[in-house]
What does this fold into?
Amino acid sequence: MPDSAWVATFLPFAELMPRLDALLTSGGYDTVHAALQAGVPVLSTGLAEDKAEVGVRVAWSGAGINLGGNAGDFAMLRRSADVVLDQPDCCARTRGLEVGGMNYIIPVDATLRTDRDVQDEAVTVERILNATERARKLRLIVLDACRDNPFIPRMRRMMATRAVGRGLAKVEPEGGTLIAFAARDGQVAQDGTGANSPFAAAFVKLIMEPGLEINMLFRRVRDEVYAATNRKQEPFTYGSLPGEAFYFRPR
It folds into this structure.
């Protein structure tokens, strides 16, 4: 075993992922998912069970490289690691942008060479909202994607009447619908330095608290993120809910 290698019986993802530049894995679902959340490029080598399919998806999405079972080819491992480390866009976290007052969620493989490409390559928040139409009591959408637009420096303007804004635009959903933004309209959300963004970290923690009604949940999330970002990021909710209380975890 080389001096630079560490061996441990258990490594918590929350502490491990922020320290990594790339991850070599057999393609286990939980491991790959944790890497994607943390923005860590993946080198996937698994072939057993569903791991071959995971490797294919990793490569297809641009989140890393599928080595197809060649874990023992050290020259290939080194070349592949160099490739993902030299590609800063590899495994970029989900991003959202606003164009002409319309909000879009950007897939990881989008190129967006012009502002006109947004309509073809990105997904509108309205389309996501339509997917919840069959919900009878509550329609809830949580968007932790109000980040800076990485395409602006190279995106050519083709539609002069449409402005590309910061963050996401204000929304006005119908009654019985709640949309939570990681940052209020026009504001950019921070990625943070850990495995989760400040918004995701607060939301994941508070959603597990018993007896916390949904409106109070998002107020508490707002307070924690506002404090954690030195008042630079303020989560915001849009929409209205019926009178019935809703809990993720009742007492």
